[in-house]
Amino acid sequence: MTAETSQTLDRGLRVLKLLAETDHGLTVTELSVRLGVNRTVVYRLLATLEQHELVRRDIGGRARVGLGVLRLGRQVHPLVREAALPALRALAEDLGATAHLTLVDGAEALAVAVVEPTWTDYHVAYRTGFRHPLDRGAAGRAILAARRGEVDNPGYALTHGELEAGASGAAAPLLGVSGIEGSVGVVLLTDCVPERVGTRVMEAAKEVADALR
């Protein structure tokens, strides 16, 4: 802590981080131990966070992340989209394919940014806001591979016809971006995806990850 920082705010943010890292919540005693402060301080922190709906406590008294955090999280999408657009535009123009940034939203993959190429006669229509299960489509499969630590070879996911008949997808996960699970990919009207597409998608994913750090 420095003279310019707030100890109370720091502790409140640490509470949110601790709660975000667990699925079953934490008791006041558990938070007290992990923060290294007494229970009275924890009670005050939780009461303040509850007022802003950032924390909720269940019948058993365990504290969990509140719905207010989700509302704040939705505002992150525009910022992420803006940071990703330059790399997506370059990717779409380079490959002549529809490029997209997809993030995890619950149990689904959500397209938060889409860029279509300007010079092709036809391309796949893929819209911002499109959702699909994580285990279908290249975007979701790339994210799941990153969760399992299986992105070393080849480093990207390929699919054909899983989301749209006749369309193929290639996507690479965003790596090294704290708090964000996502992927960058393209959708093409082809049965066979050239190897350079996978390489180019990985490059774009790295560019987006660098922009978000």
TrEMBL record:
Domain IclR-ED, residue spans: 68-213
Pfam families in the cross-refs: HTH_IclR, IclR_C
Residue ranges annotated for the HTH iclR-type domain, each copy included: 6-67
Keywords: DNA-binding, Transcription, Transcription regulation
Domain of life, per lineage: Bacteria
Name of the protein in question: Helix-turn-helix domain-containing protein
